[in-house]
Design a protein that fits this description.
The protein is mostly helical. It is 59% helix and 0% strand. α3 (122-132) packs across α4 (162-173) and α4 crosses α5. The longest helix has 90 residues, at 7-96. The protein is rod-shaped.
């Protein structure tokens, strides 16, 4: 026996198949849309995070650079301050010392060594020596050869006059002891041998000896003879202010005698 399929069943079945396909398409579309939306959201957050990093990183770098710059400036200021404090301390030390004319040879030797360390530059050391000589009693013509015509000491700090002040300070400038300063005097205040060897200055060959007759009694002679002195009048005053005048040193006076009894 055969049954005939009703046409209505066929229609329903076809509609169900169509609806099933439509549902599948919708599900696929939903999945695709969802994926796109999620992708957009992830991309948005990634770009936001990157922008935030780009914004914050320069700030951090700028803060680091600024911090390092501040540290450098502070270090330089501290260095300058320490230098100023060191200089101030050295000069305070000078001002606290007794004057050289009040001290023993041992005490002076100690100060001379300290001066070499505290004031390695000669110009500053010479200033310090001048300060340490303030108040020295004044007596005219108190340097000699310790024998012969002038028996005064060749070097002394207990008294001084103008020329003696310059000579003894120059001697101290190049010395670390009183004995060295005394030795320096023969290079500062005496004529060399008439025909000294080429290296006389370096080896200390001052063969003419320390005598009254051989002493550099006039500043002009000293400026022309000693390598430790020179005439700086023109450098200080300027050549336009210099007026030259010729004079005869140690000329014979009306009584037939010379100011200094040497030829």
């Amino acid at each position: 026996m055969f049954f005939k399929k009703d046409s209505s069943d066929v229609i329903i079945n076809n509609q169900l198949q169509i609806m099933n396909k439509i549902l599948q398409v919708l599900v696929s579309l939903i999945i695709i849309i969802t994926s796109v939306v999620v992708g957009i959201i992830v991309l948005h957050f990634s770009e936001t995070a990157k922008r935030a990093e780009d914004i914050s990183t320069p700030d951090i770098k700028e803060e680091k650079v600024e911090h390092e710059g501040q540290n450098f400036v502070k270090q330089e200021e501290d260095k300058e301050k320490n230098t100023e404090e060191s200089v101030e301390t050295d000069w305070q030390w000078v001002n606290k010392q007794k004057r050289l004319y009040e001290l023993s040879s041992t005490e002076i030797n100690s100060i001379l060594k300290d001066l070499q360390l505290r004031f390695p530059e000669k110009a500053e050391r010479l200033k310090a020596l001048a300060v340490l000589r303030i108040g020295t009693p004044y007596q005219l013509g108190r340097l000699g050869e310790e024998s012969g015509r002038d028996k005064d000491p060749i070097f002394r700090l207990d008294v001084t006059d103008c020329t003696g002040f310059v000579l003894t300070n120059a001697a101290l400038l190049h010395s670390q002891t009183i004995d060295e300063a005394k030795e320096m005097m023969k290079y500062l205040d005496y004529q060399p041998d008439s025909d000294p060897p080429a290296n006389a200055w370096s080896v200390g060959d001052w063969r003419a000896g320390i005598t009254f007759e051989n002493r550099l009694h006039f500043t002009t002679d000293r400026n022309m003879t000693s390598p430790y002195f020179q005439d700086i009048t023109e450098r200080v005053a300027g050549p336009e202010k210099i007026k030259e005048k010729t004079v005869i040193l140690n000329k014979i006076k009306s009584d037939g005698k010379r100011l200094i009894d040497i030829d």
